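Milestone M4 deliverable, item 7.
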Amino acid sequence: MGLLDVLLGRSKPVKPDLDQLFGLASAALTLEAASELRPTGRGAVCFAAVEGGAFAEVQQDLHELLTIESSRDDYGYTWLESRRRPDEMTDLVTDLHAVNSALESSGFGPQLLCSLVAFQDPQGHRIALVYLYKRGSFYPFAPLPGEKRDHALELQVRALVADDLRLEQDLARWFPVWGAPGLAD
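Output delivered:
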């Protein structure tokens, strides 16, 4: 980083560290112990799909290797979702890591947007811990009906998992992931 960057307040972007995903297992234990939030067993990776044989081949390999489902959201992004039993958080995170790693190692890292793991309280309210690939950080996302958010719950979850995950400090980057698998239904 140069002197001009320091003077203008610019910082060097954090490199993605997919091993950060394994912190989700610890965060899940923290949420279970400190709140009523429990894993749903659902997680997904979101990316901007590209046309071409190489990309299609990577997706086909992932479908053969893992039990995942593909979907496309209203914004045109592709989601690869893994479903496990709620008590199989480590396996779920391993699936998400494998999907991210396969896309990254095949040269499609720039298409990766985020990964998420869903949680639910006894009343059925859902929240996700979202990993921003390009920022190498996590944030909670708590959707409410009508494309609204439960900001108070998001801040509460942030405080609970602060020791487990590298959290995104810039709240403006806590983007909504409306209609994400595991949160919408």
